[in-house]
Write a structure and sequence with these properties.
There is one protein chain. By secondary structure, this protein is an alpha+beta fold. It is about 25% helix and about 25% strand. It is built from 4 helices and 7 strands. It is globular and about 60 Å long. It starts with about 25 loop residues before the first helix and ends with a helix. Bound molecules: nickel (II) ion.
Length: about 180
C-alpha cells in the first residue's frame, strides 16, 4: 500500500467531473486500498478520486469503524429535511464552515468487486456521501455556502495559497449597553 499525495485547492482536477468506471478491476482495488490508507493518515472520513489525481468515479469513507469503497455512485433519494454542520475537506486544509446537507440520502453504487449495492445513510455518513459525490462532480464544499460566506472562504483560500496567515478575527465590538 502507498500514501498518495492529496491535491489541494488550485489543482484543476478538483474542478473536473470524474468519469464512470466501466469495469471495476484489480487496479481499482489497489487504488481503493491506497486511498483508504491515505485517508487514515490524513486523517479524514472520506477521500475521492479527484483528490488524488484520479478522475474516475470512486471514493472511500470511514465512519464509526466502518470503512467502504464506492464506485459510480448515484443519489437515488434524499430527505427534504436538511441540517447544517461544520465541514472541512482534505483538499482545503485549515478551512471549516457550516454546510447545509440532507439529513438522509440513499445511494446506488458498485463496491470494490463491482457488485451493485444500495445504502441509506443518515447524519455524518450521509454528509460524507454528499461531500464525496460532489467531489466527483468537481464541486467543493465552499460552493455550497451562502454567497457572503463563500466569498470569505475564497479570500482565505487565496491568502493560504499566497502563504499568508489566516485573517485575524475582528476585534470585539463593545456594545452600547456595556459602556453605559
Ligand atoms: Ni473533500
Amino acid at each position: 500500500m502507498a500514501i498518495l499525495p492529496i491535491r489541494t485547492f488550485g489543482d484543476p482536477g478538483l474542478r473536473e467531473r470524474a468519469r464512470r468506471i466501466e469495469k471495476v478491476k484489480p487496479l481499482h482495488r489497489r487504488l481503493a486500498n491506497n486511498m483508504i490508507e491515505t485517508m487514515r493518515v490524513a486523517p479524514g472520513v472520506g477521500l475521492a478520486g479527484n483528490q488524488v489525481g484520479v478522475l474516475e468515479r470512486i471514493f472511500v469513507w470511514e465512519v464509526e469503524d466502518e470503512v467502504g469503497v464506492v464506485v459510480n455512485p448515484a443519489i437515488i433519494s434524499r430527505s427534504a429535511e436538511v441540517e447544517e454542520s461544520d465541514e472541512g475537506c482534505l483538499s482545503l486544509p485549515g478551512l471549516t464552515y457550516p454546510v447545509e446537507r440532507s439529513i438522509e440520502v440513499t445511494i446506488e453504487a458498485l463496491d470494490e468487486r463491482g457488485r451493485p449495492f444500495t445504502r441509506t445513510a443518515e447524519g455524518l455518513l450521509a454528509r460524507v456521501f454528499q461531500h464525496e459525490i460532489d467531489h466527483l462532480d468537481g464541486i467543493l464544499f465552499v460552493d455550497r455556502l451562502p454567497e457572503a460566506l463563500r466569498r470569505e472562504a475564497m479570500r482565505e483560500l487565496t491568502r493560504m495559497s499566497l502563504g499568508l496567515p489566516p485573517t485575524p478575527p475582528p476585534a470585539p465590538v463593545t456594545s452600547a449597553e456595556e459602556t453605559l
